[in-house]
Amino acid sequence: MAAPSSVANARLTLRGHQPRAAELVVVYRAPRTRATRALLSLVGLWALAPVVAVVPPHIPWAVIAFCGGIYFAIRQWTGEYLVHRFEGACPRCAATLPLSAGSRIRLPHSMVCYSCHHEPVLEVQ
Asked: What is the DSSP string of 63-107?
């Protein structure tokens, strides 16, 4: 994996409010890496489905493994950037916004402010 690359011009925007600067350190995940991880998630959980189907109550476990494969494959594919560090505040109320290290995001990324319940957007210029 490549070293973290700093995104210097990150900002949080919210319609009708002044944008706020944000500090964002991310690593770009190449399409080949994302596709490989998505395929491994899909195949791994789908291979697990028949194995867990022998555990009573049989059908729900197989369905959960099947749907879980789809869910995790989509998450792996859509996560274009891997977040190493994020610091930013809501443009409306100045509350700190949560985005934990290890999150996979695609930019622009919509966030939720749990203080004022608005949805600022994390953008990179």
From this structure: HHHHHHHHHHHHHHHH--EEEEEEE-B-TTT-PBPP--TT-EE-S
